[in-house]
Amino acid sequence: MYSVSVAGAAGVTVDNMPYSIRSKVSANRNHPFRSKGITSEAQAHAYGDLVMHAGHVSLNDEIGELRMHKNALVWNLNADTSELKKQEGAGSEEALDAQGDPRFLSGAIDFSLARMGFLKRCFKDKRISSGDTLECQSADPALLSHAFELHSILKPRNKPEWTLKTDTLSFSSVEECTFWYDLISEMIRSQSERPKKLLVFVNPYGGRRKAEYIYDHYARELFANARIDTKVIVTTYAEEAKDIMTTTNLSLYDGVVICGGDGFLNQCINALLSRPDRDLFNTLRFGMIPGGSTNTVALSVHGTDDIVTSILKIIAGNRQPLDLCKTTTLHGDHLTYSASMVAYGFYAEGVNKAEGFRFMGPMRYDVTGFEQFMRLNAHECIIRFKRAAPRTKATAIGTATATATAPAANNRPGHKQSERAHTRSASHLPSSSPTPTRTHTSDKFSHLMARSAETILPASETTPSEQPSHMNSPDLSQWMGGGANPHLCLRGCKSCLPDPPHAVPISSVRRSESSNSLRSLNLGTGDCSHKENGSATRKPKTSILKKVMSKRLTSTKSKSLGKQGSHGHSRTQANADTDTAIFVARDIADDCAETADQQNATDDDVQLKAHSDHTTPDGIATLTQSDHMDHTAITATNTDGSAPGDASREASGLALDHTTVSSVDSSRTVPAVGATAEPLEESEGLTFSDIEEGTDADGWEVRKGNFIAINALSMSCKHPKSVNGMAPFAHLSDGTMLLVMVRQCSRPKYLKHLLTVQNPKANHFDDDVLEGANVSEFEVKAISKPSVWMADGEVIEGITDVHCSAHYNLIHYFGSRPAVPPPTIPSSVFRDKSREYP
Ligand SMILES: Nc1ncnc2c1ncn2[C@@H]1O[C@H](COP(=O)(O)OP(=O)(O)OP(=O)(O)O)[C@@H](O)[C@H]1O
Predict the structure, then answer these.
(1) Which of 30, 95, 648, 715 could form a disulfide with 557 if both were Cys (CB 3.0 to 4.6 A apart)?
(2) From start to end residue, where is composition biased (Basic and acidic residues) (predicted)?
(3) Domain range for residue 277?
(4) Count of alpha carbons within 13 angstroms of residue 33, beta-carbon side
């Protein structure tokens, strides 16, 4: 980014020069290229030899090419570049003399709107036709050869929309002109973050089915002028983007851009993370040109769903790390990753039903939302969640740096696993995580780092006091995990954490274990999570993995027993260390199991063995990891040869059954929404009434009852109808998500809640029907009347019981947070009519 003072625009941030498009065509900043019915994006400014870019023009749906030829501007209708080249070589241009009209000749070679209108009339009158070439001599070639156009991006401080600005710079000599042209070109080239090659997927099916139009009329020209090479694929079937994403060599691209909605983006993200070389997520960026129904991700990240803003952020090469939520079954079978929202109940059912009303466009959500409201189903379930402690940049930097300076012993060859485990535990989980983080990394050091980080970090550009007064309500701290001062995720956000200095391994994606996991509950409700379907029917994990998981249970035995009153002693240090090793082992095995179905790792990979230093009284954990991150195997055996975990299950008194992973009854069908599960009284093991609300032995909080909606939001989830979003204070990259639980209530109360969500001046967390918690993990087990789950607007078929965990900075997005809060008036209410697509 460079700040260059140009004539009449002092201090403008010059971000992109090679545009050949001028926004003066339209007074409407959001649609700079639309005016008077002419969909022309052509403002070809050809100045002598310094033709910046000719670009494409469209006139009456005809595509043409503008270019300079011997000091004359040539407009060749319907000619593609190869055709032009051929013509040039053969010198066979057939010029149509348009000199008869003085308007055409008088204004030099600036094809302003009037001239485009004139050309349009010519076209209509059949004075010119497709394939004709127009030639026009410059009125003042001497002047024009000493000037060029500078195109810059304006980033207003008082609104989130970015706009284009064009300045014509004239110089007194060709030398001076060339000097500045070269200098600015060099400055632009030195912006290393700008993408050079993009893979673009256009979904002609999503939203109002205008994605192709949006891409052609907004993005194509801008990308071409910014010299970004694009491979554009307009999808022809639902899973095409996923198929291409899993087979294409993505290392050729700087980013994947979708022109569509959140569901389409979700598909591409999941496709990347399912690849063997998914480490690409460290470098590859995702971008979104809003072309779907809600475009929540673009709205939440940029603060606006303005198409031009999204495109300009891609061109500028902005990089915004995003947390993802990973959803698995309670048994750990991977389901999906989501960037914005995971929902159960009200919203998920609404989205599910809305699929049948796609022809209505975004309005389908209103229709099904109304139907949902009239039904107002509540779903009986148990929710367990682990609150995330408020994090600050300071503490995060402390842990990240502490990680980077891990003890040298871990860096020695053959100790690769320990190193990985260390990295993960220290930097990618919320600090409140009870997982086996290496707390032995000097607390004093972390403390010092935290202090120094506080000193060096720039203050947030937007302090809470600058935000609207209703955003500072002290009541809001109740759902922030207590203590944190809630503030919006704006530029310079204080809660979002800096990207760690090291690459984030995918294996940072982990879930923590707790002995009271809901999967261990056998309430006789029928496990609805195992319907045969795409992702839900993944192969069960290896028996080795089961052993390790059971091993983990064994190690937590004393804790469980303590709860039961059989043994009151606390765990020994040896046991705690074993936990660490086994936990790490389980984590790697998780990765292994996840990737096993998606790839066949080559057998000739060099295997590195890392043996855990920790020997337990009842077992040894052995890790075997290949050089390749995803080629990992793991073994764990009890010294007595028995199946690990059996003892713990017997002793704990809970019907712990982690081994059901391999004994899933795949013939089970999913209960229909609203169906009642088996009565609890007749079930084996625990009954629903045995579960108590409050905090369990693992420190997780438990809620039970009838819930209308359970939503987990990784970002503010702004929506055209909810200008602040469902979670106004959620953050893009703080490693947490906001869990929102809406209990059963009367229709008027729920209506009030829905209206409050839409009211930008109200705080819907004041509603007593709702409880919010900033969490790092949660799990839900349906008891009766099971509903459906949805991730980023895509329904997860056949799943009712899930485990979700927040994962810090898992992908990078072409975007940046806005500097200012969203306007207080919902854009949907006063939407500028000119923003509607034709
Ligand atoms: N050519 C196609 N034909 C049919 N379906 C498609 C095609 N291309 C993509 N899809 C599917 O369309 C679905 C919805 O797309 P998208 O998310 O872009 O729109 P949306 O659902 O209207 O918007 P939003 O998610 O913002 O509400 C995706 O799940 C995707 O798999």
Answers:
(1) 648
(2) 606-616
(3) 197-318
(4) 27
